[in-house]
Every structure is written in C-alpha cells, then in structure tokens.
Specification:
The complex is a heterodimer of chains A (779) and B (201). Chain A has 779 residues and is α/β, with parallel strands linked by helices. In chain A, the strands form 7 sheets. In chain A, strands 20, 21, 22, 23, 24, 27 and 28 form a 7-stranded mixed β-sheet that branches. Chain A is globular. With 201 residues, chain B is mainly alpha-helical. Chain B has one domain (2-200): TorD-like, CATH 1.10.3480.10. Helices cover 70% and strands 1% of the residues of chain B. The relative contact order of chain B is 0.14. The chains are: A alpha/beta (779), B mainly alpha (201). The interface between A and B is large, with 58 and 69 residues. Strand 1 of chain A pairs antiparallel with strand 1 (113-115) of chain B, so a sheet runs across the interface. The structure holds iron/sulfur cluster (SF4). Iron/sulfur cluster binds at residues 50, 52-53, 55-57, 85-86, 88-89, 218-220 of chain A.
C-alpha cells in the first residue's frame, strides 16, 4: 500500500481527477479548540430533578471534565427526599447513555409496524408534521387531533395543542391510575387528593393502606416518611390480597378476597357508627348525610363483610376498634393506582367517607391540606374555544377529568370514529400501547390515523407504528417547566436544568414546542425568547431568578405553612353543599348511588385466576426495563401464585409457564414465584415487561406482559377509568392448560423469616389463614 | 506524495462513514470514489461489484435516498435485526460516552481537537475517528500517533462492527465499505511495522 502519487496515477489513469475532487470534500466532525483554550471546566455537581419516575426527587449530577455524567446523587436540600434516591434514580445516567435511544428525527419509509425509517433533519420533520396538522385541521377541524402527553416535559407541547384548538388531550394518570380516587374524594370533600398523597405520616398514630404499595411503588420521599412513622411506633393496617412490602411491616394484614374492599369499608363504617366510635363533633359540624349513611350501613355488619371478604369478622372488628381508638390521627392512605374493577370511584368515596368518620381530613395525623405556591404562567395568546370532546369526559363519564382527559375514551373514539373521526395522534412521553389496556384496539385505532407522531426517548413498541419520530432529550439534558409542589407541608418549586448536553440530535420539549408553534403560526403562545426568560418569569413571584436558584435547584415558599383546618373559623368545603358529603345529592341527580354500595364482581371461572399487576421498586411502568443497571437487577418479572394452589397443581417454584386469558390470548413465558403471600383466587405480576420492540435490546421479550392479557376492562361509569383487574388467566405448561380440581378457599399461612436484629412486629392474620397447631407469633 | 494519498484515503473513509449527504452521492454516482479506491488496489476489495451496483441507480437522488435509508437502518435503528452502532463504547461498555470514549476524547484533547458543536455523533464514532487520523496526518511528526490510534482505538473493535453490518445489511454498499476500510487500516499498520523493523535492522 505504500505507493507514490505517480504510481497511484499510473494504476488508475481514470482516477486522475479523483484526488483533487476528494481533497476538496467537506467533512467536519472535528474542530480545533480556540486559541488560548486552557482545558475543560472542572468537575461539577449540578442540581436538577429526577424523571426515572414521576415523583421528581432532587438530584445532583456529577459531571467530569469531558462533560460526561459520572453518577447521580440525591440533593440534600430537597425538602421531601433529603438527599435520598431510589435504585432507579441512581441509574438515570444509563438511560441517557443507552445505545438504543432515539438519536435523530426519523420518517417512516416502510409500512406501519415494519420499523423502516429514514433519518431526516429537524426542519424536514417539523415541516412534515405541521403541514399534515394544518391539512387535517382544515379538513376535519382541530378536534380531530388527539394528544397523549405525560409528565411536566410535555407541558409546552400541551400548551401548543390547546392553542391549536384541540380539546382531545388525555393522559393515563387519570383513567389508568388515580382518577377514580380523585373523583371519590372530590365528591366527598370538594378537593382532589393530588400528588404526592398528603398523608400526615409525621403525626399519624395509625396508617391504613388499602391496596397501597409503599415499598414497591416507590417514591423516595414517601418511603422515608413511612419508614420514620413505623420507627416512631405508628401502627399500620394493610388491606391487600397480597403480602406486599407494606404488609410485611403491618400490625394487621387483611388478605381479603380481591374486589371486596367496599364491603370491608362499609363494615368498618358500621362499627364506627354503631359503636359510637366516630368523630361526632367533626361530623356534626362539617358533614351532611350522616343519618342516611347510618341507615345505609346498618346491615353491613362485620359478619356480613366476613362472608364476602373471606376475612374473620373479629379481624374486621379489631381493626375498626383500632381506628376508633386513634382517631383523628388516623391516616387512611387514599391509594394511587386505583383503576381496578370499574367501580373505583365509589370505592374511593367509601375511603373518603371513612376518613370523614375518623375526623381526619384536614387534621394532624390524617390528610393535610395542600397549599398555594405562586408561579404565574407566562403571558400567552388566548386559546380558541375548543369543540366538543371525543373522549366522553364530562358527558358519557360525568366526572371524567377535563384536564387530564380519558385516554381509553380517546382510543375508543378514534377506533370507532365516533363521535367524529380523529385523524392524528401525537404521543408525547407516553406509552400508549403499554399503558392503555387492550393494546389490539389501540393498534387498530392507530391504523385509522393519517398522522401518528411519537416524541420519545427510547424506541418503545409504538415507535414501530409511527409516521414520524422526534427524539426528545432526556431529563438530564434539558430544562423543563417549573415543577411546583403544593402537596408538601411547606410548598416548594424545583427546577430541572441540563446536567449534560443533549446527545445526538435529541431536543428538549420546550424547543420542539416552540419550533412547531412557529410553523403553525402560533408564535403568540410562546412569547418568551429563551427558556431561561420563561423560567425567570415563573419564578418572579417567588422573588428569585433562575440564576439565583441554579445552585440549589429548590425554593421553598413558607408564607402559610399550616396545612390543617383552623376550626376556630368557619370552614366551607368546595362541595355543592359546602359540607363534607357523606350522602351525595350530585351522584343521586346523575342516577348513581349517593352512598357507595358493595357490588360483587364476576366470579373467577374455575381453573382461572384473577390477574393482578403492580409495581416493583426497580422499574417504573414500562419505561426502565432497558436501563442496563435496572435490567441487571430485574431482567424479568415473576408470576406470584399461592403455594397451596401451586402444590395442588404440581407447579414448581422458578419454572416457566405461559398464561392464557379468558379470551384465549397467550402470554410469553414467565417464571413462577410460589408463595403463601397471595390470595388463592389471584395471581400477580409486575407491570411493564415483555417489551415488544426489538429496538430495545435488553428489554425485548423479557418476562410477560400484563397489558397484553388485558383484553377486557370494566369502565368506571363515574370517571371513565378502566378497571383492569377483571381479566382471568389460566396456567399453560408445555402447551397444556393446568386445571384445578375443586375450589380453593383457604389462604395459606405466610411464614416470614425475620432477622433477629430486626424488631419483630406482630402481624395479625385471620384465623382462617392459620394452619392448625401454629400460633400467630410466627407470622 | 505518498502521505498525501494516505491522507486523502482517511478523509474519504471518514466521508463514507458519516451520514450520506448530496456530496457523497455525487462522488459515488460520478465514480470519483470508486476510481480512487480502485487505484488504491486494496487487497480483497471487489471494486467492480460496487461499481456495477452503483450503475443500477438512475439518479444521484435515488442513490442518496437508498444510502440514507440503509444508513438509518444499519446505524440508527435497524429492524428486525440488531443494529450496528458505529461507536466504540458500544462494543466496550454498551453505552454511549463510555470510559473508552473518554480515552478517545483525551487523545483528541492532546492534539487540540474536540468534536464540533454541530456534530451530533459521539466522539468515538468511526467517522470522527477516521477524520481525526486524517487531521493528524496533516500535522507534522504525528505518524506514530496516527498508527497507535488506528491500532488501539479503531482496529480493536471495527471487526465486531463489520460482523453486525454483514448481518443486517440490505444493500451491498456498507459491507463493502467497512471491509475495504479494515483492509486498508490493517495494511497501514503493517507497513508501519515493516518500516519500524527495517529501521531497527
Ligand atoms: S422515586 Fe426514584 S425514580 Fe422516582 S423520582 Fe425519586 S429517585 Fe427518581
């Protein structure tokens, strides 16, 4: 190869022009440092907020001389998390540096689902999208564009979509998560519960968790508060068909039959009322409908509930007595993901009514009140008046959120083209195929679209169907809107700021929205010049500039730090009557039960199990399975199955099985976790596994997907939320169903091994769950 | 003169490894690159096959579109096979900007280079690394550094990249290009070692 120019030219006379042409070719990946350059900045610690899940704990990014993020620590000045992070928060850098992440805008060149794309410039991408949006708006109206956002990062684009004129904005935080709870509490107290749940862990004497999974559904701040409360000696009642992490800390574990929670709640009310244990003064002064409630729960005795729930009546009675003893310092946790059975708003209301009877709403040790934090919005042009919604919020589902919308309602409308055709979807940081049940319907709805845009960080399954993919910068690479937390005892604001530069051509959400606005002629909605100007404006009412809080990332607002009612003054609740509504005339007027009624669910068919799903502390939804560290800790999910049932079926712990649901849909293989800690009627798996996008090299086809087994839902008639625990599965081993013979009705006793150094807490389990000859002590 | 050809070779290889632009399509369509490669007489390089493949395109635009779709498929997304990331730290640490990237950045720093602000690829992207050798070759007294960089920072992983390209490629272009680059680089190192051995003798 060592050749001279002369030899070279001799070898290829026709190459004569090549050298001169190639020497003028432009390549420009490298540049010289400017003259006088003295090296990179020193190592830095940059405060921001996490987004590995939606709790947004305070973080400090440790950056090296090359601008590389080496590790993430907790921000010690964060008022809720005090420098602590969970496993996911600590692993965030692996998401930023994930080789599978979306790197450039991509335009589909193959068929939908084929995954064939061409890299395009941002200009081409945004022009393509906005041309299509304009055409669709002209032909079908602005409302024919559906927007599916998630998180604060999507707020700028949401602002844009409102300016564009569509009413069809929906995120799963309502219909697939906490919407029904908020409806129940709002109908009772006039307020949503909000986030994080304002349970006064600091002052409570007794915590009551009904399907609340602190320890598995990890919010670092709430975990800390919970741990401190336990350490302080606060008692804990856990109602859960599964021996959850919280149940392991409980004084009382009530493993009721799935779907019977409302019966238990009514029985507790019965005991509190008929044994005169409730907070009489609080109810007399601030509530209406007590007499109707008293009459309503008269027959809901512990014996009645015992029959339904499978719990011993004595346990129902004992736990009610505990509540009566500790009121008002009883914190009934309102729950978070409550989209269970389709009757969830009424269950939420039953929990709210119980809270009222305990006198603990707006009182120390119960539920504290949220406070205000001034953070004005940047002046913007007025939004046009939107047309009628397609998702049914406020109409078919009278209490559906107009702010958060009903995702499944929007999918249905798109699928059925009813009440009108939806022609475009923009999905922003949301995972519509994994987070909304019945993914087949979602895909069929996508098929009906003229335009499907995905803005995301990773190539999730929905990416395969996208016409246009826009790569968003990760939370470590961007500014976002100001994060204000009203549900803290001292409300505060936190900033998200870039710790590292956006990789490849990913862009922050504010930039994507502002650039899109320019092309849609909606610049008036984004009147700020830079994101720094925008944040400065929002912070102005707090008396600070962005620059002034960049070193800490946080600003507290402690003007009125008493988050409880002042009973020396008149109190007006934001309900129709101005009082706590134990009986709801509003519900009655809409034709719903004014006081919650227990309605039995469909029985589990013989040979099947009710499919329950939930969280793990290692993963967030279906979002983190491709993170190398988290994948290392938990690459697959397991199927929890009751040990008595498993023994009868001849199943072995750790073996792989498939699941088939009531509609014949088969899951991928999943490993068994055989445990006495789950009700025999139910099986459980962690949500978010079996990612179907082959672009996610680590997560692809690991474990089984709960969503893909959800071919049915019960829609809550009040909120429109999807009850998802209404699917049944049977076990398939070596291609054959494994059948149970006869009903199994006894919960095996859970044998828990405690390290001697850990103080032993007495967990009360129903007698019926204890095997003869064994005492309660060992539990 | 010989250095000049070597320097243009690295520049051309870098150009071939960046995302295809109109200029690259023009140079390919007009046979400029194939003529150059052919004259290099790289061992095992079946330049005629590439030339005839290029002849199947009716226009530069069609060629550019094909190259861009294939580049996206191979190095950015690829479906249904695993894609072939074109940066070193994927093969070392399975992440973007791994420790091995930092080593590469340190070397760039040493010679007063950094990745341009408008370049979206990470510093250990093959195209940038080849461009670096080209830039070094324009500086005096860097021959040994160039060879050391080629040997330690490029040849150490490029064959794994080739394997992935061969698995996923839908057109013959990139398998040919990567194979040609590998042969050239290996030969370049061998020539240096022969020279070195000669000098010692
Ligand atoms: S709980 Fe964990 S993942 Fe969620 S915001 Fe906090 S640190 Fe991040």
């Amino acid at each position: 190869m060592s050749i001279t120019r002369r030899e070279f030219l001799k070898r290829g006379t026709i190459a004569a022009g090549a050298i001169s042409l190639l020497s003028t070719t432009k390549i420009k990946g490298l540049t010289n440092y400017p003259k006088g350059w003295k090296g990179r900045e020193r190592v830095q610690e940059i405060p921001s907020i996490c987004e590995m899940c939606f709790w947004r704990c305070g973080i400090l990014g440790n950056v090296d001389k090359h601008g590389k993020l080496l590790k993430i620590d907790g921000n010690p000045v964060h008022p809720l998390t005090h420098g602590r992070l969970c496993a996911r928060g600590n692993s965030g850098h692996k998401t930023a540096y994930d080789p599978d992440r979306l790197k450039y805008p991509l335009m589909r060149v193959g068929k939908r689902g084929e995954g064939k794309f061409k890299r395009v410039s941002w200009d081409e991408a945004l022009n393509f999208m906005t041309d299509k949006l304009k055409n669709i708006k002209e032909e079908y109206g602005a409302e024919s564009v559906g927007f599916f956002p998630h998180g604060i990062q999507a707020r700028f684009f949401e602002h844009l979509m409102k300016g564009f004129g569509t009413p069809n904005i929906a995120e799963p935080a309502f219909a697939q998560c906490r919407g029904s709870r908020d409806v129940g509490y709002k109908l009772t107290f006039g307020n949503n519960i909000g986030s994080p749940e304002p349970l006064d862990f600091e002052n409570t004497d007794l915590m009551v968790f009904i399907g609340t999974h602190i320890g598995e559904n990890v919010f670092t701040g709430q975990n800390l508060q919970f741990g401190n409360a336990i350490e302080r000696g606060a008692k804990l009642i856990v109602v859960d068909p599964r021996f959850s992490v919280a149940a392991a800390k409980a004084d009382y574990w009530l493993p009721l039959k799935p779907g019977t929670d409302t019966a238990l709640l009514l029985a507790w009310m019965h005991v509190l009322i008929y044994e005169n244990l409730y907070d009489k003064k609080y109810i007399r002064n601030y509530a209406i409908g007590f007499d109707q409630l008293k009459k309503h729960v008269k027959s809901c005795t512990p014996d009645w509930a015992a029959e339904i729930t499978g719990l011993p009546a004595s346990l129902i009675l004992d736990t009610a007595h505990e509540m009566g003893k500790h009121l008002p310092k009883v914190g009934v946790h309102p729950g978070r993901h409550v989209a269970w059975y389709g009757n969830d708003s009424q269950r939420g209301r039953a929990m709210a009514i119980l809270t009222a009877l305990l006198g603990s709403y707006g009182r120390p040790g119960g539920i504290y009140l949220s406070s205000k934090i001034p953070a004005p919005h940047y002046p913007s042009a007025k939004n046009p008046k939107p047309g009628p919604r397609a998702d049914g919020a406020g109409t078919i589902y009278p209490f559906g959120s107009l702010g958060l919308g009903i995702t499944n309602g929007l999918v249905d409308a798109t699928h059925d083209e009813d009440p009108y055709p939806i022609k475009a979807w923009i999905v922003y940081s949301q995972n519509v195929i994994q987070s909304i049940p019945d993914p087949w319907k979602t895909k069929e709805a996508i098929d009906k679209l003229d335009l499907f845009v995905v803005v995301d960080i990773l190539p999730m399954e929905q990416f395969l169907y996208a016409d246009l993919v826009l790569p968003e910068a990760t939370y470590l690479e961007r500014y976002d809107d100001l994060y204000t937390v009203k549900n803290a005892k001292i409300p505060f604001a936190a900033i998200r700021q870039p710790i590292i530069k956006p990789l490849y051509e990913s862009k922050p959400g504010w930039w994507i929205a502002k650039e899109t606005a320019k092309r849609l002629g909606l610049e008036d909605h984004f009147q700020w010049d830079t994101i720094e100007d925008y944040l400065d404006y929002r912070l102005s009412a707090l008396g600070k500039t962005l620059k002034e809080i960049q070193n800490t990332g946080i600003i507290e607002y402690d003007k009125d730090p008493t988050p409880y009612y002042d009973f020396s003054k008149p109190i007006k609740f934001k309900t129709r009557s101005g009082k706590i509504e134990l009986y709801s005339q509003t519900l009655k007027d809409y034709g719903f039960d004014p006081i919650p009624v227990y309605e039995p669910l469909d029985d589990v068919p013989k040979g099947y199990f009710r499919l329950a799903y939930g969280r793990s502390p290692i993963h967030s939804f279906a979002r983190t399975q491709n993170n190398e560290i988290l994948h290392g800790y938990m690459p697959d999910n397991y199927l929890w199955i009751n040990s008595t049932v498993a023994n009868k079926l001849g199943l072995v712990d750790g073996e792989y099985v498939n699941l088939e649901n009531q509609d014949g849909i088969l899951s991928d293989k999943i490993r068994l976790f055989i445990t006495p800690g789950i009700h025999p009627e139910s099986v459980f798996m962690v949500h978010g596994f079996d990612q179907k996008s082959p672009f996610l090299k680590l997560a692809y086809k690991h474990g089984a997907s709960d969503t893909y087994l959800m071919s049915r839902v019960n829609v809550d008639p009040l909120s429109g939320g999807t009850g998802m625990r209404v699917n049944f599965v049977r076990i398939i081993k070596n291609g054959q169903p494994i059948m149970v013979s006869g009903a199994v009705s006894v919960v095996a006793k859970f044998k828990k091994t405690l390290k001697s150094s850990v103080p032993k807490k007495r967990i009360v389990v129903p007698e019926a769950t204890q095997e003869a000859g064994e005492s309660e002590e060992g539990c | 003169m010989q250095e000049n050809i070597r320097n243009i070779s690295f520049k051309t290889f870098a150009k071939l490894c960046y995302y295809p632009d109109q200029e690259l399509a023009d140079l390919l369509f007009d046979d400029v690159i194939t003529r150059f490669l052919s004259a290099l007489e790289i061992e095992n390089s079946n330049i005629n096959q590439l030339t005839s493949w290029l002849k199947t395109f009716k226009s530069k635009e069609e060629l550019l579109e094909t190259l861009q779709v294939e580049y996206t498929h191979l190095f950015i997304t690829s479906f249904p096979s695993l894609h072939a990331p074109m940066f070193k730290s994927f093969y070392y640490e399975n992440e973007i900007l791994g420790m091995s990237t930092e080593k590469v950045m340190d070397i760039y720093d040493k010679f007063n280079f950094h990745v341009s602000d408008d370049m979206a690829e990470p510093p250990d992207n093959l195209a940038i690394m080849l461009e670096f050798v080209y830039r070094l070759s324009e500086l005096e007294n860097t021959y040994e550094d160039q060879i050391s960089f080629v040997k330690n920072e490029i040849l150490s992983w490029i064959e794994q990249l080739e394997e992935k390209i061969n698995e996923a490629a839908e057109i013959p272009f990139y398998p040919f290009i990567i194979n040609t680059i590998i042969h050239y680089l290996k030969n370049d190192v061998t020539q240096y070692e022969i020279k070195l051995a000669g000098a010692k003798l």
